[in-house]
Design brief:
0% helix, 4-stranded antiparallel beta sheet, 60% strand, mainly beta, 11 strands
C-alpha cells in the first residue's frame, strides 16, 4: 500500500500562487501515476492534473496554462504549482496514487483546503 500526505494549502487572494505537495511512502515503486483532484463547494470531485511514471501529464481545461504538476522521484513527492488562482479554484485538493504490483491500488491523501478570495 501507499500512504499519501498533502501540504501547502491555504488562503490566497485572486491572482496569487500556492504550491501543493504530496509525499508518498510505502510501496512507492508500485506507483504508475499520481494526480491531484479537487472538490469545490456543491461540486463533484474532478481531476485537476496527473503525471505518470513516464512523465506524461494531463491537465483539466480549466487549469491549463496556470497549474503545473511535477515530481521529485528522489523524495517520492508530487507537486502542484498553482498560479493565477481564481475564486473558482477554491476546493479541497486531494492527492491520488494509482498503480499495482501484486494487485492494483488507488490511494488517497487526507486533502488540503485551498481558498481563493476575490
Amino acid at each position: 500500500q501507499v500512504h499519501l500526505v498533502e501540504s501547502g494549502g491555504g488562503l490566497v487572494q485572486a491572482g496569487g500562487s500556492l504550491r501543493l505537495s504530496c509525499a508518498a511512502s510505502g510501496d512507492t515503486t508500485c506507483i504508475s501515476a499520481m494526480g491531484w483532484h479537487r472538490q469545490g463547494p456543491g461540486k463533484e470531485r474532478e481531476l485537476v492534473a496527473d503525471i505518470t511514471i513516464g512523465d506524461t501529464t494531463y491537465y483539466a481545461d480549466s487549469v491549463k496554462g496556470r497549474f503545473t504538476i511535477s515530481r521529485d522521484n528522489a523524495k517520492n513527492t508530487v507537486y502542484l504549482q498553482m498560479n493565477g488562482l481564481k475564486p473558482e479554484d477554491t476546493a479541497v485538493y486531494s492527492c491520488n496514487a494509482e498503480g499495482g504490483c501484486a494487485r492494483p491500488f488507488s490511494s488517497w491523501g487526507q486533502g488540503t483546503q485551498v481558498t481563493v478570495s476575490s
